[in-house]
Input
Amino acid sequence: MTIRQMILTGIIVYSSILAAAENNGKTVAFAQDTMANDFRKAQVYEVRDAFKKYPNIHFISSDAKGKTALLISQINNFIDIKTDLLIIGTNDEKAVIPVISKAYKSGIPVIILDRGIQGDDYTTFINSDNIKIGSLGAQYIADQLNGKGKVLLFEGIKTADVTKLRSKGFLDTMEKYKGIHVIKRTGNYLRKDAIFEMEKLIASGEKIDAIFSESDSMLSGARLALEHHRINPASLITVGCDYTSEARNAIRNGTQSGSVLFPLGGSKSAEIAAKIFKGEKVPKHILIPVKLITKENVEKVKPIF
Output
C-alpha cells in the first residue's frame, strides 16, 4: 500500500513511518474506532507521545469514524503493509474477531486496548474493571439520593463490551434500592448524541433526580441541554466516567457531582509494545485501577487529559 492509499483509507501517516523502513525500526499501528470521541482521540495521542521515548519504534494510526466495516478494512491494510504490532480500539466485540485473528495468526502481536472482544487471538488485553465503574457510580448516586429517586443511565455504544459491563455494574448495584427507578438512553459516547437524547427527554416532560453517564463527554452534552432549558445541572446528582479536565472543572464548580477515573491506557500499551519487541513475556490481561473522583479528592488527582 502506498502512502497516498494509506491516507485515503483514513490512516494517519507520521513522517517517522518513512524512517522506519530506512532504519530497520519497528512500526506500531493503532486502529482506532473513532477520533470524534475525545477519549478515543486522547488514547491515540498518548500512545504516539509515549513512543517518543523509543527512537526505533515508529507510529501510525487510523480513524474508522465509528464504522465497523472501515475499522476492519483499516486493520486489513495494516496487515498488508506488514505492521510489526497492532493496537486495536474497537466498537464491536464480535464483528472484528476474524480480522484480529487473521493479524494474530499471521505473527503480528496484537494489543486490545480498553474495549474487549469475544475471542482469544490477541497478545495482551489492557483495560479497567468496567463492572466496578458502573457499581461505583451507582453506589455514589444511591447514597446521595438516600435510596429514592429517578436516575437516567446514559449508555455508550451498544455493541461495545465496556457499555454492557458498565451497565451491568450499575444496574446490579441499583437493584438493591427498590426506591430508585432507572431509565436508559443511548449516547454512543458522543457529546452530540447525548445532547440530542437529553433534549428529547426534557421535551417529554420526564423529571429525573440523577444521571450516570458512561463517559464524561456524554455528561457534558447532557449539561449543555439542561442549561439550554434553564435547568441548573447542580440541581441533579451527576456522575460521569473518564475524569477529563472538563469533568474536573465541572466538579470544582458544582455542576458535576463526580467522575470515575478511567485511565487511557496509551502509555501502558506503549510500554507493553516495547517489551514485546525485546522478546519479553507479557501478561495476557492487564487491569488498570479505577477510582471515584468527587469534590473531596478532585484536587489530588490529575485528569486523564
Q: What stands out?
A: The longest helix spans residues 130-144. DSSP finds eleven helices and 13 strands in the chain. The first strand starts at residue 11 and ends at 13.
